[in-house]
Amino acid sequence: MIPKIIEFVMQREGKKFLDLNENFDESIFNRKIKNDASLYVHIPFCKRLCPYCSFNRYLFKEDLTKKYFKNLKKELALYIARGFEFSHFYFGGGTPTIMMPELIEFIDYLHENFNVKQISLETNPLDVNCENVNLLKNSGVKRLSIGVQSFDDELLKSMGRTSHTGEEAREKILIAKENFDTINIDLMFNFPSQTCEKFKKDIKIFKELKIEQVTFYPLMPSPHKKSAMEKKFNTVDNSRERKFYDVILDEMNGLYDPSTVWCFSKGKKIIDEYIIDYDDYIGIGAGSVSFLSGNFYANSFSLENYGNLINKGKFPVVMWKKLSEREFINYYFLTKLFGMELDKNKFYDKFNSDIHSKLRKEIAFFKFCGIIKEDNENNKLEVTEKGMYYVNVMMRKFFSSLNGLREYCIENKI
Fold first, then answer.
1. Chain Cα centroid distance, residue 395
2. Where are the beta strands (DSSP E) in 134-220?
3. Which terminus of the chain is more solvent-facing, meaning fewer CB atoms within 10 Å of its CB: N or C?
4. Topology of the domain comprising 21-276
5. How many CB atoms lie within 10 A of CB 311?
6. What are the extents of the domains in the chain?
């Protein structure tokens, strides 16, 4: 019953969050930002397009990719000209490592313009080799996240992820191992043809590899991708999700600490969810989203439109929304719970109000359900082990709503 209530509320709130305007006001970008915002860089090209993925991505073409990297520099220059300073960088996709010379040149551009402290970068097993690992390591990449999804060859084939086998994924992880501060692998759960037994085997292999971090992603297809998957497989059944999540908790307990409800690490490690560590973040690239001072922005998803706006010296933002105070507080509450705890002192500093006066009913409900507990000594709200699954449901529903926006923008070439 609780997951159903949470899904209903998140669907309602998600629609409010994504009720966007098309008349973009650039004035918000005129204030100088110090190191309180992170930068996300989206590389939307892949050599194969996985059918479950809802991110903005295109089949790789060399000429388009080279042009795109040039436009990325031009977009970033717009922020530099307005005094933005970044120190923490996250590359996602698509496949950021799809053209290594252009990627390394772009990272060099970051070093030339910013005090770079951390770079987290996604890749897939296909692109992991000794040469690329050395290039990334020497460029200052601290965290490498490898999109394995599963070590089961049959499941990989079902997913349409045919770029690697399970054995090849293991070999590539060992090549990258010990070359970065953090090695992460992504594993998917609750895929229609997946069983809990296969999932347990994936986690067993992860443990045998003795790397320090794993991120488990629930299936979160956009509406049309969900329909397409259900024609090929069985219904996307979220009622099975709890069994998979219980496997995660059982297998991780005592060995890895939860950095988020999806990510488990040995010790304090860099994570991919910059929305937790940074209240503000800027996304550059086609289809990136940004959150700044209570405003939500979406860049053009069309490569052509993105390039045209950039080359006119304009920000490629095509949709935006200024959140109401209530929407902002709900978003803040959700993202902090995703990261396992909310600092009540920081909440007060941000909203000039005690959290209990703003979220009295929500906190009472979450405490009653055993989802959160109060740490009065450290003045925090903490997610309980029991509550982790429910926060997982909240985030899955939130990202599913965002994937619906992505699908709409991609299909309408916005």
1. 11
2. 143-149, 182-189, 213-218
3. N
4. TIM Barrel (3.20.20)
5. 11
6. 21-276
